[in-house]
Amino acid sequence: LSCSQYHKMYRTVKATSGRQIFQPLHSLRAAEKELLPGFHAFEWQPALKNVSPCCNLGIINGLSGWTSALDDAPADTITRRFRYDVALVSALKDLEEDIMEGLRDSGLDDSVCTSGFSVMIKESCDGMGDVSEKHGGGPALPEKAVRFSFTIMSVTLVTDDKEGEVTIFTEPKPNSELSCKPLCLMFVDESDHETLTAVLGPIVAERRAMKESRLILSVGGLSRSFRFHFRGTGFDEKMVREMEGLEASGSTYVCTLCDSTRAEASQNMVLHSVTRGHEENLERY
Fold first, then answer.
1. Where is the V(D)J recombination-activating protein 1 DNA-binding domain (predicted)?
2. pTM of the predicted structure, to 2 decimals
């Protein structure tokens, strides 16, 4: 329902039944603020480098944090996203009860465990296919959409004593869309290297900055410090090739990590070896 439709229904039901079955609109808005990233206070030590200083956190323009050169054509894409660190904070606060329960189940005294938490993040990115309107008339946009999202796979704690790492939380359904947090939605065709790279550039910069720093966040009433580890395992091969500047289907290379070309592969279908890595692909690009 639109806000006005909802409000009308709320008034009608209240007037006819005399009972307040639905929440008034302002209380829904207040609840929504808590669920959107940007509600919880947090701090990075050291402060994040190269991160958009935009403070009214919530949904921001997907290109914010992207330093444009003078001769850049404005990217004809509409993209909206959360700031990466703010979205991670929100996702961790969602897991607050699970983390506290995990500490209790492991027999750890939560007042002692304030540092040494490490969080494993699975990143996913994929095209959402054709999202064109049935009867055009909207803004002239690419009619394809791409979504970048992440999932908190596990939270572990490195304890001081002999036990080493204790796993406090593991995502029970890592492939479910319910555990997958959207970070950035963009109207862009996933086979348009340049625009995709421009849009995901700020996200990559924020991720780099977060790897060098620790997050200080209040969980269970105490400030605790978290380090993040990122694994981009939710990309299909087509998307990996996009990010690394290889054409997906029209590429001369047969495989993402092998230097064998189509011509060579048609002669030799057996002997192939991994000859380059993702880092090298990015450098070549």
1. 1-42
2. 0.77
